[in-house]
């Protein structure tokens, strides 16, 4: 029961509404009802909270007892201890001043008569000092399989973020060169996070912020013009074979650019080169299955006096002041290490002015939450971005979320790769894809927490062994597809009308169904924590559980054995497993092959 604060005859929700306890616990809102967008564990967790609320209402528990927002359930390693376990009775015992086993007994009593989960739970046992072990009924297991088959590609999706509009900004590279390995990590993780947030019900806009203003653009134009003139590129300019390629393309289509006066020539090379390089970045990202809804130009922040509008808004909040001829934002009011210059004493805009205007633009475009995905060298931006939100009158703990990604190394033949054929300095996204393919690159970049450095071993990612995690998961899907093809060939029927949960008694079957049931909770958790790597690790665990099931539970008949209802039930379970693996991979932007 999310938002439950305390109980004393009535329940107060976070929205400020006061509802009768009986209405809350007996009629239930949609978040509590048994529905296929929640995992079975979420449904059991909600039922435990309802049991506690009823015990409080009946004065069997203290009236002022503060209950948690949700109950944490664990999957016991020993399946003889049930499908789920919780220590909530022990956690409440001290404040309730009661024996934990007595609290566990109250929960057990109300759980067994809860109409919303009746039939789904077979047993509730109390162990040790007050642990609750919950065993699902076979009909409940059957409903899990039915939900997977019925919902198809939507299984695992939920409503935790329904009604939230999220701006997800990632990569945001300068349009002055190829996307390199640092951008590659965000290209994979950012896209996967967008998919996960959308699966959790959010309206997500993926945005690329084009840094097309400032000194780096002038150096880019000067580098291109120098290459076209076949003279030395400025020492602090841009180098690499791609500069010569772009310069050659420009002079071929616009030879007149070289004859222009110097200032006009530099501007022409800059703007035309910018368009070519941006188009190349867009092409590479689309090939990497990373799509952006908005390509936002930094220059546009200074069109139509938008920057002045932003400054006026901040002034109205009382956080802007003038000192030494410059205009400052007092970000130290909100834990930044120093105040930030918005307009320099010479009248030019500091880069921080763009950061500020960009945030305000996002909020005024209607986004509730602005997620920034920044590189390892941007730790200092976290506090200043949150201070911008606070200065604008927003809640920095809600309206803005900043993720920092660590570096990636590539190992090939036991040695780190550092040089790029095209960029001259660092491996590009396109070169990585050429080495290992889109699936392997995306999966591997996503499967690690972004706040930890990672190493990609090209030789492992090219291998077709269990050491290669993407191959391990994809092979599980392909193996199931092969099993199902063989099942059809021998006349085994499978699908919604062939679930037969009463026949699925084997320990491996229960283990597999339990893992499938967890997928919606994994997706919701990955969205809430902004951690799409949880999807990859779940997929690997599910693949391992399936392989153990396949080894111990024969799906296809032996020899002349006639197909039976058990074969159909197991084939149906295989189909459900293939669906969940495919859905997992889809959230990562990775394919689920039917043959390998």
Task: Tell me about this structure.
The protein has 596 residues and is α/β, with parallel strands linked by helices. Among the domains are: 10-136, Gyrase A, domain 2 (2-Layer Sandwich); 469-587, Orthogonal Bundle (Isoleucyl-tRNA Synthetase, Domain 1), CATH 1.10.730.10. The chain is built from 20 helices and 16 strands. It has helices at 21-27, 40-57, 88-96, 100-111, 138-151, 181-199, 215-229, 241-253, 262-287, 306-317, 351-364, 381-391, 429-436, 438-446, 458-462, 469-489, 507-517, 519-529, 533-552, 565-587; strands at 10-12, 18-20, 84-86, 121-127, 131-136, 165-169, 203-210, 294-297, 320-323, 326-329, 340-343, 369-374, 400-404, 408-412, 415-417, 454-457. The strands form five sheets. It has a five-stranded parallel β-sheet, with helices on both faces. It has a three-stranded antiparallel β-sheet with strand order 3-5-4. Strands 9-10-11 form a three-stranded antiparallel β-sheet. The radius of gyration is 29 Å and the shape is flat. It starts with 9 loop residues before the first strand and ends in a 9-residue tail after the last helix. The model is unreliable at 1-37 (pLDDT under 50).
């Amino acid at each position: 029961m999310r938002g439950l604060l305390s109980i004393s005859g009535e329940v107060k929700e976070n929205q400020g509404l006061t509802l009768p306890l009986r209405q809350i616990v007996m009629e239930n809102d949609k978040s509590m009802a048994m529905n296929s967008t929640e995992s079975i564990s979420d449904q059991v967790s909600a039922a435990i909270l309802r049991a506690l609320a009823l015990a409080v209402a009946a004065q069997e528990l203290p009236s002022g007892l503060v209950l948690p927002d949700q109950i944490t359930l664990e999957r016991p390693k020993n399946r003889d201890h049930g499908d789920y376990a919780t220590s909530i009775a022990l956690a409440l015992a001290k404040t309730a001043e009661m024996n934990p086993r007595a609290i566990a007994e109250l929960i057990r009593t109300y759980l067994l008569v809860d109409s919303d989960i009746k039939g789904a739970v077979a047993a509730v046992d109390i162990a040790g000092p007050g642990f609750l072990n919950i065993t699902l009924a076979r009909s409940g297991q059957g409903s899990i399989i039915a939900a997977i088959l019925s919902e198809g590609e939507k299984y695992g999706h939920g409503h935790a973020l329904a009604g939230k509009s999220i701006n997800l900004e990632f990569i945001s590279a300068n349009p002055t060169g190829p996307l390199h390995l640092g951008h590659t990590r965000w290209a994979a993780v950012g896209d996967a996070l967008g998919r996960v947030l959308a699966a959790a019900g959010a309206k997500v806009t993926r945005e690329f912020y084009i840094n097309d203003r400032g000194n780096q653009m002038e150096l880019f134009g000067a580098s291109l013009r120098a290459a076209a003139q076949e003279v030395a590129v400025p020492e602090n300019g841009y180098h690499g074979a791609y500069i010569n390629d772009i310069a050659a393309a420009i002079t071929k289509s616009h030879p007149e650019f070289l004859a222009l006066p110097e200032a006009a020539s530099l501007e022409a090379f800059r703007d035309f080169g910018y368009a070519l390089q941006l188009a190349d970045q867009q092409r590479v990202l689309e090939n990497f299955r990373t799509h952006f809804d908005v390509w936002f130009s930094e220059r546009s922040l200074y069109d139509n006096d938008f920057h002045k509008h932003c400054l006026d808004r901040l002034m109205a909040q009382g956080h802007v002041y003038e000192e030494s001829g410059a205009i400052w934002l007092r970000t130290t009011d909100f834990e930044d290490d120093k105040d930030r210059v918005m307009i320099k004493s010479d009248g030019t805009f500091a880069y921080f002015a763009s950061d500020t205007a960009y945030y305000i633009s996002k909020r005024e475009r209607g986004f509730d939450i602005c997620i920034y995905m920044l590189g390892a060298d941007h730790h200092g931006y976290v506090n200043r971005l949150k201070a911008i939100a606070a200065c604008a009158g927003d809640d920095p703990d809600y309206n803005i979320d900043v993720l920092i990604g660590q570096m990636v190394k590539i190992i090939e033949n036991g040695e780190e790769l550092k040089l790029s054929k095209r960029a001259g300095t660092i491996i590009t996204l396109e070169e990585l894809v050429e080495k290992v393919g889109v699936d392997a690159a995306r999966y591997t970049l996503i499967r690690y927490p972004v706040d930890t450095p990672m190493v990609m071993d090209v030789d492992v990612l090219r291998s077709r062994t269990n050491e290669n995690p993407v191959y391990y998961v994809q092979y599980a899907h392909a193996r199931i597809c092969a099993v199902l093809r063989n099942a059809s060939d021998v006349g085994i029927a499978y699908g919604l009308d062939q679930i037969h949960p009463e026949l699925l008694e084997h320990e491996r079957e229960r283990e597999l169904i339990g893992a499938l049931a967890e997928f919606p909770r994994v997706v919701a958790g990955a969205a809430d924590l902004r951690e799409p790597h949880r999807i990859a690790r779940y997929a690997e665990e599910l693949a391992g559980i399936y392989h153990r099931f396949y080894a111990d539970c024969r799906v296809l008949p032996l020899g002349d054995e006639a197909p039976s209802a058990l074969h159909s039930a197991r084939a149906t379970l295989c189909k459900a497993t293939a669906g969940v693996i495919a859905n997992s991979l889809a959230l990562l932007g990775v394919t689920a092959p039917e043959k390998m």
